[in-house]
Predict the structure.
Amino acid sequence: MAPASIPIRRYSDRAAKFVRQSRPITVRKLRRTRNAGLDIFRDYCGNSSIHGFKYFVGNGRTRVEKVFWIAMCVLSIYGCASLIETVYDKWTRSPVVVTFAEKPTPVHDIPFPAVTICPVTKVKSKVLNFTTIYQHLVHGGNVTDEDYDRFLAMIQVCDFSFNKYLVKQEFDDNLVHLLQEMAPPFEELFLMCIWRGKYVNCSDLFEPTLTERGICYTFNGLAADDVLRKEEYHQDFEHLGEKRSSENWSMEHGYRPNIGLKAYPRRVASPGSTAGLFVGLKSELSDMDYLCGGYQSQLHTPNQCPQISNQNIRIPMNQALTVSVDPLLLTTSENVMSYSPEKRLCFYPHERYLRFFRLYTKGNCELECLSNFTLHMCGCVQFSMPRAANVHICGLAKLACCEEAESILQEQGLGSVDNSTKMLLQSCNCLPACIFLKYKTEISQSHFDWRRLTDTIHLCEKELNK
């Protein structure tokens, strides 16, 4: 008997039984899923601690009541989101909040202020009688060429303006050499100096410094090698005459330990006038030209170039002037360094490169910015400004331009400059230093009857005879 035949099945028929059969989605299932979602929402609203959500549900609530509470909650969420956005925007603009944690600092950890003294009398009367030359020019008198050149140089360092009577000159590259030749000898300006209660030769304490007021003398300033990039400077003359190195002190780290009082810049071990600096200044009566006479002084940090015109103390003759100094050292936490300078609004000393200065301070940055902007506007710079070797010194014809450049720099925030000027000014970006030192001063003065003192104790009678 023949065997029964086995039916042949195709592969597709055998594989079909492994294919998952899709079931049609019915309306009942959709409704059941929606109801489950509503149940979860009702359960959440009924048990939520968020105020107002429980009024969204409940059989006893009218539709108007539910709509009202939904609107109130939406408005509340919108208001919270707006406040969060405002706070976040404020944080992105200024994430660093400045708080002052005052901590007493020993006086020996802070350098004594640098003291710059400028004689307003820039020339002795036997070299140039400024008032006489001025009157000759006004009334049409004769003046020698040598006296006229010296008079032009004096105008640039005097407080008064005499430009309208003079022939204009655009450049005056020999100006500083004339000022140095005419400057009164050092020993005819300083009578005596006392430092930390001991008499010291004034020439051992003060070094010549070039400022916008001419030849001045600075005590406790840093050396030119520590402040200036000499490779970028001209070689016509020196701006800072100090030679002592400040390798044992820095603004960031202060004095090195176990250095003692011989460290430079100088410091004191205790407060009080006896631990400070006493300077006796003099001026001969024959040199007291009242168009240009007296003394000016400025107290500043040792790492900053003095700018007498910004802030100074006027020292009148026949007066005893006492300046009490209260130092304020401001430091910034190291964790603030992770923020960008634009957010923390200050520069650490190593962050900002200046072309002419090795040390960043706000004052040094502003002086370099003023020099660059004056060169941009006038094609030259004033004699006291930092400059490269191929840059001219402005003459009298350019003084008005220099004054305008300084005025524009001061008014840059008012938006009254053209685009090219605005771009140059924005490149200055002279933010405060994150670590800086400033000195608050309190001044007192009284009449000084020095003649009675010298006649009584026979002190410096020959030096003060005239």
